[in-house]
Amino acid sequence: MTAPWYVAFEVKPNQFKVMVEFKTKLFIDGQWVNPVLGGQFASYNPATGEILTHVSNSTKEDIDIAVQSAKACLYSKNWGYASTGAQRAAVLRKLGEIITARKNELARLDSIDMGKPLREALADMNDAIDACSHFASLAEEQDLKQEEEINNNTTDFITRIRHEPIGVVGAITPWNYPFLMGIWKVVPAIAAGCTIVLKPSEYAPLSCLLLGEMCFEAGLPAGGLNVVPGLGPDAGTPLSAHPGVDKVSFTGSAPTARKVMALAASGPRAVSMELGGKSPILVFADADIDGAVDWIITGILWGSGQV
């Protein structure tokens, strides 16, 4: 049994009926596709414990197809090494417009799928829109710095700096900020000209699937972002170990991070990790103490203590 094209789910915030649609296939090479092995996993509504839908489960076969698609896009004439910062910025600014237009829909979807209050989900969407604008500006600045000549105090040779994408990025995101974490990994990679294979958390995968479609609509070429939902052993493990992936970016728990790092080391490939724990906070003598206390409490307790 294959996953449906989309599922319509009815919610009634403030007694108003709203229809929220979400798609449940894999998004690879600019298309909605079924997984090779046809597997599925259940996605639950955390507010009720009931099953929302069944989502396609990626396996190593699908990961391989997604990575090959990303690799082809990386070396194409339209993206990757051939792209300019201005071209990438145009995609990101368009993506910001699309998210703005669909902000309420995306927020409701994250609230249903992950369980956070709607007001927090809406705040996540605002952060996502800001990220698109911020990294679009950085992409444009990169053009100004491209081929910058460095004074090396010799006439024997010339030294220039060239900024290039690191390659195919394998991104693995957690459940607690489903769409925003996807944005924080995908948008900087797009700004740099990379291509991405994104595995969202199996606990809240639905908004990230829409992110794949929205990036394609914004002008990102097919294969630029492939979204492969799935269970950790089925999808996360082969993505972390895939020889075609040049960098792995992971946000989640320390135990899973150890497994991801060990798999990535077989490349070897670049790895970046964002793990749990609390950061030290320094408050100096000239600080606004009331303001500092407010921000400390916010930093510790926002998102049920996950920030």
CATH top level class name of the domain at 58-150 and 161-276 = Alpha Beta
How are the strands of the biggest sheet laid out side by side?
A: 11-10-9-12-13
The ordered H/E elements are: EEEEEEHHHHEEEHEHEHEHEH
Distance between the termini: 39 Å
Classify the helix fraction into a percent range: 40-55%
Given the C-alpha coordinates, what overall shape results?
globular
Radius of gyration, CA atoms, in whole angstroms: 20 Å
Mean pLDDT: 91
Stretches where pLDDT is under 50 for at least 5 consecutive residues are 1-8
Give the name of the CATH architecture of the domain at 58-150 and 161-276: 3-Layer(aba) Sandwich
Structure description:
The chain has 307 residues and is of the alpha/beta class. It has a domain at 58-150 and 161-276: Aldehyde Dehydrogenase, Chain A, domain 1. It is 45% helix and 19% strand. The chain contains 9 helices and 13 strands. The chain has helices at 60-74, 85-101, 103-114, 118-145, 178-192, 206-217, 232-241, 254-264, 289-305, and strands at residues 6-11, 18-23, 26-28, 31-33, 40-44, 51-56, 148-150, 159-161, 168-172, 195-199, 225-227, 247-251, 270-274. It has a 5-stranded parallel beta sheet with strand order 11-10-9-12-13, sandwiched between helices. Strand 10, helix 6 and strand 11 (225-227) form a beta-alpha-beta unit. Helix 4 runs parallel beside helix 5 (178-192). The longest helix is centred in the middle third of the chain and has 28 residues, at 118-145. The radius of gyration is 20 Å and the shape is globular. The protein starts with 5 loop residues before the first strand and ends with a helix. The model is unreliable at 1-8 (pLDDT under 50).
